[in-house]
Write a structure and sequence with these properties.
By secondary structure, this protein is an all-alpha fold. The protein has 2 domains: about 200 residues, no CATH class; about 240 residues, no CATH class. α11 runs parallel beside α14. The radius of gyration is 24 Å and the shape is globular.
Length: about 500
Amino acid sequence: MRARRSLFEPAEGSLGRAVGWGAVTTGGAQAVRLGCQIASVIVLSRLLPPEQFGIVAMAAPVLAFVGLFQDLGLVEATIQRKTITHAEVNLLFWINMFISVVLSGLMIAVAPLIAGFYGQPAAGVLLAATSVNMVVGSATSQHYAILARRMEFGWTAVIDSVAAVAGLGTAIVWALFDPTFWALYAGALATAVCGCSGMWLLSGWRPGLPRWIPEASGLVRFGAGLTGFNFANFFTRNLDNVLIGRYWGVGELGFYDRAYKLLLFPLQQITNPLARVMVPALSRLNEEPERYRHAFVRVIRMVLMVTLPGVAVGIALSDVLIPFALGEEWAESARIFQALGFAGLMQPLNNPVGWLFISQGRSTEFMRWGIFTAVTSVAAFSIGLPYGATGVAAAYAVSEYLRTPLLWSYLGRSGPVQADHVLRAALPWMAGSHVVVALLWAARSLLPDTALPALLLATAGAYVGTCAVAALFPAGREALRDAGMLVARLANRRQAPRGAGSAQA
C-alpha cells in the first residue's frame, strides 16, 4: 500500500498513473450520472404531470444564482494550496457552513416573493425546502476537497455514482406513491445526503470548533476571486437568453435554447469531469514547470482531437442533425446551431484555461478575465440582437474568435504555459477541423440522403480528415503517436493475465 504523508497530502506514487486512473474513474462516474439523468427524464416524465416539472423550473433560476455563492471558491482554494493545515481547512469548513445558513435564510425569505411572482405557492414552498439541500451540500465541500487534494478520484467517483443512483431510486419510489414535485425534491435531497455521508466517511477528516486564524486570509481572497469569475460567467451565460426572450419572444428563445444545449452538453461531458482531475494534478506540479506544461499540453491535445471533428460535423450538417436529433419542428434551430458551432470550435481550447488560473492560484486574474468576457459578450449580443437568435449566435462566435488570442496572451504573461505552447499544440487540430467543415460543405451532394447514414459517414470522414491535416504538423504527429500508444497500453492491459500487472508493479 502506498504511504500518505498526512491527511491532506496525496499518497506517494506516480502522478501520471493517478491522473490516468482519475480520468477513467471520473469518466465512469460521469457516465453513471448521465445515465441517471436520462433515466430520470424518461421515467419521471411518465410518472409526474408536466405542471410538477414546471414548479421545479420556476425555482431553478433562483437556485442557480444562489448556488454561485455557496462555497465561495473555497473548495478550489483547499485543492490548489501547496500545503494546508487542519486549522485552515477547519476555518474554511465553518465559513462554508455560515454562508450556506445565510443563503438558506435568504431563500426562505424570498420564497413568498417567488410564489407571488409566479402566482404559484408551491414554487415558494419548494424554494424554502431546498435550503436544506444547500446546507447539506456545504457540509460536503471541504471533505470533497480533501479527497480531491489527495487525488483519491476512485473514491469520489464511487460516491458520486452511488449518490446519483440513490437519488434516482428515491425520486422514482416517491413518485409512485406521491406524483408531485416532492418526488424530484426527495431525489435531490437523497443525492446530497448520500454524497455527504460518503465524503465524511472516506475523507477521514472531522471539523473542530470554529476559530479564526490569520493564515486563512489568503485562501479567502483566492475564493473571492473565483466567486467573482463565476458571477461574471453566470451573467454571460444567461444574458443572451434574457435578451432574445425579451425582444424576440419565447419561440425564438426556444430555438436558441435547444441549439445551445445540444452543442454544449456533449462538450461539457468531456471538459467538466476532466477539470476535477486536472486541477488537483496541476496544483501538485506548480514547482515543476516542465512537467506542468507537458501534462497540460498532452491533455488539451487529446481533448481537441476528440471534440473538434464532431463539432465540425455539427456545423456542416446542422440542417440534417437538428431535425434528426430533435424532430422536424425544430428545423429552424439549424442555422442557430451552425453559428454557435463556430464558438464550439473555440470552447474546448478556451474552457480549460480555468484549470491553469486555478491551479496557479491566479483567481484574481481569472475574475478580471471573466469580467472582460462578460463586457465583450454583452457588446456581441447587442450587435447581433437586431438579427434575431441567429445574429446573437453569430456575433457570439465572432467574439469568441477575437478573444481567444487575447486570452492566451493574458494567461501566458506568467506561469509555465505560454501562448506559443498552446498555439503549437492546438493549431493542427484547429486547422484540421476548419478544413473539414469546408470539405463537408463541398461534399454534401455525395452523402446519403438518409440522416443517420449521412451523419455516420460524415463523422468518420471528419475524424480521418482532421487527423490527416493534423499529421502535417510536428505537434499533430506527436499527438497521434501519444493517442496510438495510449490505445496500445489499454489493449495490452485487457489482454494481460490477471497476475502480470501486480508482478510488474
